[in-house]
Design goal:
This protein has about 450 residues and is of the alpha/beta class. About 35% of the residues lie in helices and about 15% in strands. Bound molecules: coenzyme A (COA). Coenzyme A binds next to helix 1, helix 4 and strand 5. The site of coenzyme A has 25 residues, from helix 1, helix 4 and strand 5.
Length: about 450
């Protein structure tokens, strides 16, 4: 029999999360082999089940892509029976993850202090919009809230003209990125618990997860405070910085001169663009000039040092642009890839059509069965030499309710009672009586 190498086999997770941030974290725990039981409100479930559906009778791709390989347990944790059931679950679990709005879990009666008393070994992991003690700590948060407050929006987007407005990234810096940050904290806490024998409280704000990806912008602010300008930005040397890290357009985040260039079909294809980096070192610049046919720049003092190129960015961009405009992004990539850092701008459609993405599991196909059949999702972003995640289907709402209750020792009569009193099933609202006609 082959050895089960799933890193988290035997770890039990109670997943009290919804939407994207928390579920992205618990999905990774499930892919690493943990037994993840997702608690969903009876008859309703995670809000994403019915958000952006492709068919009103089926769960959305949003839900499917974030809840693969989990179990679904319908539970109203606010009823007396619900509280008793959750307490029992917590007694036997390793990790509890929640992302309710600030104060909601305390109100339900399951704060860190309470849960730690129920089971001192449990790791209690929380996502909120903002760090404890922040002036925004009580704010509810979704993706753009985090990007707006954590420096991402103020430094992203165009830097002049009418589109010089704070802009959010299409990448989920506030949502899935927060889930991945929490995952790091949880995994460290699991190792810590092996030494201390006790679980701890891991608090991850969306703000901190997003800010962590903006650290180079804090580098830029420090430099700006010292010298008043930033050589890598389009505003250098003649524009105004006004003491704040500006929006960056398409500059490369480090000290090298990168930009995004139109290619041959840009008028008909929104994504016929290519990103090209001009590196700083003399040897890399020589390679760049030779491959592009710009050898005259090697001896031209306006271009043959990094600072000269930074001072003359518009001319550098103009010449590279002229070189690219009669080639497609793929042709540019083929010509340059062995010599300098380059990549075509790829659309999501192109990415999802690339066979290599399936061969190396950047993308995976999950068989959901039924009317949905197979769907594509992003696979576990790291690979292991001795282990491949199980990419199982997402659960139907309440698919595992009876199984979980039976494992906890509840009899069939108990389970019927829980359904009848609204703990594990939705109690239909009584029909409104027709109004009595006025006499
Ligand atoms: C995402 C968010 C804005 C949604 O807020 P919301 O619409 O109020 O929804 P919540 O799921 O937090 O909670 C709504 C209520 O349902 C209750 N609830 C949710 N699941 C429950 C369950 N299984 N049993 C009983 N009650 C439940 C909560 O206790 C809460 O009750 P309250 O308002 O009386 O305190 C908020 O949860 C939030 O800011 N979370 C933290 C940051 C985050 O993760 N954001 C999502 C990024 S993808």
């Amino acid at each position: 029999m082959s050895q089960n190498t799933a890193p988290l086999q035997g770890i039990k997770v109670i997943d009290f999360t919804s939407v994207q941030s928390g579920p992205s974290c618990t999905q990774m725990l499930a892919w690493f082999g943990a037994d993840v039981i997702k608690i969903e409100r009876p008859g309703v479930g995670d809000a994403t089940r019915t958000e952006l559906q492709f068919d009103p009778s089926l769960p959305s791709y949003y839900y499917l892509q974030l809840n693969s390989d989990k179990k679904s347990f319908e539970l109203d944790a606010a009823t007396p029976d619900g509280k008793a059931i959750l307490t029992k679950m917590l007694e036997g679990a390793d990790i509890f993850v929640e992302n309710l709005h600030p104060g909601a879990m305390d109100k339900l009666g399951f704060s860190w202090e309470v849960v730690h008393k129920i089971n001192p070994k449990i790791i209690y992991a929380t996502i909120k919009g903002f760090p404890e003690g922040s002036p925004y700590a009580d704010n509810k948060a979704y993706e753009p809230v985090a990007q707006a407050a954590a420096g991402a929006a103020s430094t992203t987007g165009w830097y002049e003209g009418e589109y010089n407005i704070p802009t959010q990234s299409g990448a989920a810096l506030g949502d899935s990125n927060t889930g991945m940050h929490l995952l790091i904290g949880i995994l460290a806490a699991v190792i810590q618990r092996e030494k201390t024998g006790e679980g701890c409280y891991v608090y991850q704000s969306m703000y901190n997860a997003c800010l962590n990806l903006c650290r180079i912008k804090t580098r830029d602010q420090l430099t700006l405070d010292k010298i008043g300008y930033l050589t890598q930005y389009p505003q250098y040397p003649d524009g105004q910085f006004n003491g704040q890290v500006p929006r960056a357009g398409n500059i490369e985040g480090g000290g090298v001169l990168g930009w995004c260039y139109k290619c041959k079909n840009w008028k008909t294809d929104n994504n016929d663009y290519v990103y090209i980096v001009v590196e700083r070192t003399a040897s890399a610049f020589k390679t760049f000039c030779e491959v592009m046919g710009f050898q005259d720049w090697l001896t031209d003092p306006d271009f043959n040092t990094p600072d000269a190129r930074d001072r003359n960015k518009p001319k550098v961009w103009e010449r590279i642009q002229a070189w690219c405009i009669d080639k497609t992004k793929y042709e540019v990539n083929d010509l340059l890839k062995d010599h300098i850092p380059v990549a075509p701008v790829l659309s999501i459609k192109e990415i999802m059509d690339m066979p290599s993405n399936y061969a190396n599991k950047s993308l995976v196909k999950i068989n959901q069965g039924g009317k949905i059949g197979e769907f594509v999702t992003v696979g576990c972003p790291c690979t292991f030499s001795n282990f491949t995640p199980n990419y199982g289907p997402a659960p139907e709402l309440g698919a595992n309710t009876a199984e979980v209750l039976t494992e906890l020792g509840y009899s069939e009569e108990d389970q019927e009672r829980f359904k009848a009193n609204g703990t594990t099933a939705r109690i239909p609202k009584p029909e409104a009586k027709p109004a009595t006609p006025a006499k």
